[in-house]
Amino acid sequence: xxxxxxxxxxxxxxxxxxxxxxxxxxxxxxxxxxxxxxxxxxxxxxxxxxxxxxxxxxxxxxxxxxxxxxxxxxxxxxxxxxxxxxxxxxxxxxxxxxxxxxxxxxxxxxxxxxxxxxxxxxxxxxxxxxxxxxxxxxxxxxxxxxxxxxxxxxxxxxxxxxxxxxxxxxxxxxxxxxxxxxxxxxxxxxxxxxxxxxxxxxxxxxxxxxxxxxxxxxxxxxxxxxxxxxxxxxxxxxx
Length: 239
Ligand SMILES: Nc1ncnc2c1ncn2[C@@H]1O[C@H](COP(=O)(O)OP(=O)(O)OP(=O)(O)O)[C@@H](O)[C@H]1O
Prior knowledge:
The chain is α/β, with parallel strands linked by helices. The chain has seven helices and twelve strands. The protein has helices at about 45-50, 75-80, 100-105, 115-120, 135-145, 165-180, 220-230, and strands at about 5-15, 15-25, 30-35, 55-65, 70, 85, 95, 130, 155, 185-190, 205-210, 210-215. The longest helix has 18 residues, at about 165-180. The relative contact order is 0.18. The model has no long low-confidence stretch (mean pLDDT about 95). Bound molecules: adenosine-5'-triphosphate. GO terms for molecular function: ATP binding; ATP hydrolysis activity. Keywords: ATP-binding, Nucleotide-binding.
């Protein structure tokens, strides 16, 4: 199964401003790429462009998923092809229970989904989606919605933000097992690097000045950022 992601010479504009320029990256099946980068550098924009969000205009380049150019597909069509996203700030929806959302996207009874237990979200299933959920509950609820769809490509925007240490460990192990078992290609945005303790990531890179830099081993990239800051990435092109 080809569930690789290939991004070729991608330029993305938001509100007439170039956020990403001539960006290239590739994630092969079963491989995890960790994406670092300063605030506002365009990491979430990259995920939104891959998902085909309105207002994130691709003015140049190609997004290739599973060997198919998906630039022309709607967000819905991209999700149906197997691209799953965990957003940084998911919406709160009154009147729709978490259970209903899972059943809507999977068309299966939610209680049958193994991730309800694995992610310990049983008590959230009959509450309005994300309404008054704690930060950690919201991330677990979002992860349930994503994994219940059994995606082929996972795009995770700061999965550990607002999550306590024990829940980071639990979510990280669940994620890693899913990625390994299904040979899912994955892109994980992180500021803290905690996720590296649980997910076997093969590569990392830094997004800044509209492009990818410092493509290397995740722990090495993270240590360099901690030691030298993002400023050093300006002069480093990695491997
Ligand atoms: N819909 C939008 N309208 C206007 N500007 C936007 C929009 N989305 C993103 N931007 C701008 O694009 C730039 C990149 O934002 P983005 O959210 O991609 O950064 P990020 O790297 O994910 O940041 P952070 O680490 O703070 O989450 C920012 O200057 C942001 O204000």
